[in-house]
């Protein structure tokens, strides 16, 4: 039975998509590997616009102790630090000759598409982790300060959420305490509990030893490791935090569950195929694109250290 042109195109695209998504959706099963899809680090939020505009809410103050018939004190919602975030558009394509697809000698076209999918996944991860690579410099929150820096509060005062200490059992405790005592924009201590410890590839071994050893690491004393028994911190790592990717091999970050690191998604991954009949050199054009960005509107729930001291 002869297939129509449209049927042939659908068959080709099905074959290409099958290889593409098999490799794009592939995730390493190694514990602690973080990607752009790790919701504990990048909170996903969908949008229908090319730009997302918001202002930071100061937050309410503490409740007041009042008498039985006393008028209830009011807290007026206050917003400031207007922020506009623009969606990035990522796209790429490959040309596959009709003869190469028809013959697929040595699985060349399938290998080409598999590599194409892997690069798409890497692009997504590289873009996401750039907020942490630049957390001490160019990743800015709505107040105009770097993500891990000194922040001026809407309600007055300031908060410091950065350090230079190398990752040790002692410095981790310092970060935990700072996160627990961290104030929001209204100056209220939120009691943030650390949920994630994010480190580079080079720092992963030490981070796991500190947080998951049955007994306290780096000591001859048989102290119980409270990071494992009490906090239950999950250690995550990504090569896109490393110096090799433009980041740092020493930096580390603590995140609580109420952090504001957001992955803003306008359009998930889409693929398209142009048939060889519409080219002037008998090639298929297979392309893919996605539209998203990662940003951090507020510092709350984040503590970071450059790890240089």
Quick description:
The chain is an alpha/beta fold. Helix content is 26%, strand content 27%.
Structural account:
This protein has 309 residues and is of the alpha/beta class. The chain is globular and about 80 Å long. The chain has helices at residues 5-24, 98-103, 108-133, 169-180, 204-212, 226-231; strands at 43-46, 51-57, 79-86, 88-97, 150-152, 158-160, 162-163, 194-199, 234-237, 252-256, 262-274, 283-295, 302-305. It has a single domain (5-305), classed as phage-related protein like fold (Alpha-Beta Complex). The protein is built from 6 helices and 13 strands. The longest helix is centred in the middle third of the chain and has 26 residues, at 108-133. A 5-stranded mixed β-sheet has the order 7-13-10-8-9, with helices on one face. A 4-stranded mixed β-sheet has the order 1-11-12-4. It has a two-stranded antiparallel sheet with strand order 2-3. α1 (5-24) packs across α3 (108-133).
Produce the secondary structure layout.
Blueprint: H1 5-24, E1 43-46, E2 51-57, E3 79-86, E4 88-97, H2 98-103, H3 108-133, E5 150-152, E6 158-160, E7 162-163, H4 169-180, E8 194-199, H5 204-212, H6 226-231, E9 234-237, E10 252-256, E11 262-274, E12 283-295, E13 302-305
Parallel strand pairs: 1-11, 7-13, 8-9
Antiparallel strand pairs: 2-3, 4-12, 5-6, 8-10, 10-13, 11-12
The fraction of residues in strands falls at: 25-35%
- Summed up, the helix count is 6
CATH fold group: phage-related protein like fold
The helix content is 25-40%
Terminal-residue CA separation = 72 Å
Q: What integer value in Å does the Rg equal?
A: 24 Å
Q: Major sheet, described briefly?
A: 5 strands, mixed
What structural category arises from helix and sheet content? Answer: alpha/beta
Query: What is the overall pLDDT average?
Result: 90
CATH level-1 class = Alpha Beta
């Amino acid at each position: 039975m002869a297939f129509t042109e449209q049927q042939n195109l659908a068959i080709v695209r099905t074959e290409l998509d099958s290889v593409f998504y098999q490799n794009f959706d592939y995730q390493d099963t190694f514990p602690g590997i973080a990607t752009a899809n790790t919701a504990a680090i990048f909170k996903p939020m969908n949008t229908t616009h090319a730009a997302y505009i918001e202002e930071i809410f100061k937050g309410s103050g503490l409740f007041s102790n009042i008498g039985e018939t006393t008028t209830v004190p009011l807290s007026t919602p206050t917003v400031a630090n207007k922020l506009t975030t623009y969606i990035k558009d990522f796209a790429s394509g490959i040309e596959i000759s009709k003869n190469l697809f028809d013959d697929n000698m040595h699985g060349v076209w399938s290998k080409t598409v598999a590599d194409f999918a892997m690069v798409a996944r890497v692009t997504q991860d590289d873009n996401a982790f750039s907020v942490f690579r630049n957390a001490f410099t160019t990743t800015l929150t709505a107040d105009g300060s770097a993500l891990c820096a000194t922040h001026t509060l809407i309600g007055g005062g300031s908060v410091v959420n950065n350090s230079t200490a190398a990752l040790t059992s002692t410095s981790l405790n310092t970060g935990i305490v700072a996160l627990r005592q961290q104030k929001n924009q209204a100056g209220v201590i939120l009691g943030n509990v650390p949920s994630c410890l994010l480190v580079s590839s080079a720092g992963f071994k030490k981070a796991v030893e500190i947080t998951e050893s049955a007994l306290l690491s780096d000591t001859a004393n048989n102290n119980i490791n409270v990071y494992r028994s009490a906090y239950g911190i999950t250690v995550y790592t990504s090569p896109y935090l490393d110096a090799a990717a433009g980041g740092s091999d020493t930096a580390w970050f603590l995140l609580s569950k109420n952090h504001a690191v957001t992955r803003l998604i306008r359009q998930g991954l889409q693929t398209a195929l142009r048939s060889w009949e519409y080219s002037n050199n008998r090639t298929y054009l297979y392309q893919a694109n996605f539209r998203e960005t990662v940003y951090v509107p507020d510092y709350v729930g984040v503590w970071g250290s450059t790890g240089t001291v």
